[in-house]
Amino acid sequence: AAVREILLAIGEDPDREGLRRTPHRIAEAYAELFAGLREDPKQHLRATFDEGHKEMVVLRDIPFASLCEHHLLPFTGIAHVGYIPRGRIVGLSKLARLVEGYARRPQVQERLTSEVADALMEALQPDGCGVVIEAVHTCMTIRGIEKPGATMVTSAMRGGFRGRPATRAEFMSIVRGGPQ
What we know:
This protein is α+β, with helices and mostly antiparallel strands. Helix content is 37%, strand content 29%.
């Protein structure tokens, strides 16, 4: 009913052939796009493995899509997630699922970045973690200021990634794809 009202408000005929099923399609799309509201993304970090590993682990270039909570327009990009375990590790797919769980809700990139970092710290209790997210926001590229090509970058550093400049520098070098 809400989508039908929007179509009427913009001067469209919601009963014309091309728009008849649009409200249903949008409802299905929003259920998928906001699936993260129905889960606790930290659940993906529950299964850990004792490997005795205490060196940096980084999963780079995790693609994601989210919707800006201010305009409900997409922002898409990549996330880079790293942590230094205290012996226990988590499967790499779980890091991608963590990003996806927080991205699939009305979001702002700054909060998304912090939520991923805070969840890692809480669930894994690592020595530290870092999250860098790079994204393009259609709320800025196709409307308003209309600046296509502008990329927003946010970071969140916790524990040793915040307190030790060398650790932060190593993580950022890996994120940039430089020599390790």
